[in-house]
Amino acid sequence: MHDIQNYVSEAERICVYSEGAVSEYERETEAFRNILCAWEEMTENAVPMPAFGVSLDKLTREERQHGLWVEFVFSSCRRCQGMPFSRLLCKVAPSDRGFNLIRCNDEKYEGRCFYLDLRGGNMQPLYDALCSAVGKE
Questions:
Q1: What's the predicted TM-score (pTM) here?
Q2: Are 84 and 105 in contact (CB under 8 A)?
Q3: Which of 26, 98, 107, 115 is buried most, with the most CB atoms less than 10 Å from its CB?
Q4: How many other CB atoms are there within 10 angstroms of residue 117's CB atom?
Q5: In the predicted model, what is the mean pLDDT of the chain?
Q6: Sequence-distant (≥ 6) Cβ neighbours of residue 49 within 8 angstroms
Q7: Do strands 54-55 and 111-112 pair parallel, antiparallel, or not at all (unpaired)?
Q8: CA atoms within 13 A on the CB side of 64
Q9: pLDDT tens-digit profile of 89-117?
């Protein structure tokens, strides 16, 4: 079975939300590759942990309007730990040492989340890659 962080390499598209504005990057773009590389660097030593987070669609959509978020979009439904998803969304704060991956299934951000502990690392590499991608538009 894949650990949840390995599914990201299967994404078809990456959406970056910065203060509610969305930028989309297809698999063949340099920005996509740079974001994926930063993700892999950030999660190299990450460990999936039990998540206490539960997403409510309306609240998640409201929260996504503030700060920096990244969403990995898949061509079809995936399943990990018995939980289905077609998108994975997370808020990116450079000093955070762990984060929830919010599942989107049937176009709703509902239900249990996944959680990754970065084992002493932080989200800075991903934050920098996202800022760089959005800044080049």
A1: 0.95
A2: yes
A3: 115
A4: 14
A5: 94
A6: 98, 115, 116, 117
A7: antiparallel
A8: 21
A9: 999 999 999 999 999 999 999 999 999 99
Q: In this structure, which long-range contacts are made by residues 34-40, counting pairs with CB atoms below 8 Å and at least 24 apart in sequence?
A: 34/129, 34/132, 34/133, 35/70, 35/126, 35/129, 35/130, 35/133, 36/8, 36/9, 36/11, 37/129, 38/125, 38/126, 38/128, 38/129, 38/130, 39/5, 39/8, 39/126, 39/129, 40/9
CA angle 103, 55, 80 (to 5 degrees): 30
Tokens of 6: 């390995």
Cα separation of 41 and 126, whole Å? 8
Query: How many angstroms separate the CA atoms of 137 and 135, rounded?
Result: 6
